[in-house]
Amino acid sequence: MWSLTTNPWSPLFQLQSDLNDVFDRSGIASAPWDFDQAAYPTVNIWQDGDNAYLQAQVPGVSLEHIEVLVTGKQVSLKVHRKAPADDTAKHRTWLRQERATGDFSRLLELPGLKAGVLTVTLPKAEASKPRRIKLLAS
Amino acid sequence: MTAVDIEKTNPAQNQVERLSDAQFITPAVDIAEDAEAFIFSFDMPGVQSQDVDVNIENGVLLVEARPGAGNQDDRTYLLREHRPVGYRRNFTLNVPVAVDAIHAELKNGELMLRVPKAESLKARKIAVKTA
Q: I need a surface site. Which of A103, A124, B48, B109 has the fewest CB within 10 A?
């Protein structure tokens, strides 16, 4: 399990992030190992009127590997990104592996959730529902 | 034994470009090789298939995805960790590939690219006969 919320390397990521900022300002492209992207999945939260929206970027994760848990104002988001299939039988060799796999989680705070209502909107192409969505009394 | 090497071209060619408000970033990639092909897997969340371009020119594979339409700047963000971006990355292929047989597929925010090797490069088993 690798939880990014309790990552012992956070100070180093912060340093990397600061360095990335310097490079960003210099106009040089961010490297693929840009640790700004180490916050996986990246999340946007916005609000309008009575609604708050949470949008996470989870490339490479199928719906059955996404878990959303709400407790009071807190939203716990857990995703599992499968490692590529073991293809040694196919004599496949890796030339490059930049994408991390495994378990990732984010713990986020939403502005006041009213009456415990949480609407999960999924892209229309992905019709099935996540494995588990629980609303716990706050 | 097959010293097949795929490497990124000069990083200077990967400079961040601004196209109106859109920004292009370098997507993370996994590259695998088997006897038949190279298999690329890119992280490209938020991309539509019609916005992806794959080209090979002078031995350079260029993969580009334009950012999705729609301005999201007018929202009231409490947290903003990602923006609509395009993706661009190129690779020098120092082996011949079957350009016309490249297969691309977009699924769950991942772009999979199968780039078959040219016929002459595929591993062959040579039968050895006894004299």
A: A124
Answer yes or no: do A80 and A25 share one domain. no
Report the CATH number at residue B99.
Answer: 2.60.40.790
Q: Are residues A24 and A70 in the same domain?
A: no
A62 interaction partners in chain B (CB closer than 8 Å): 108
Interface test with chain A among B40, B81, B91, by most A beta carbons within 10 Å: B81
| Structure tokens belonging to residue B25 | 């970033």
Domain region containing B60: 6-69+82-119
Task: Name chain A contacts of B6, Cβ cutoff 8 Å.
Answer: 95-96
Mean pLDDT by 10 residues, chain B (131 residues): 45 45 82 91 90 90 85 83 89 89 90 88 72 77
Question: Is A87 an interface residue toward B (CB < 8 Å)?
Answer: yes
Cβ atoms of residues A97 and B32 within 8 Å: no
Residue B130 lies in a domain: no
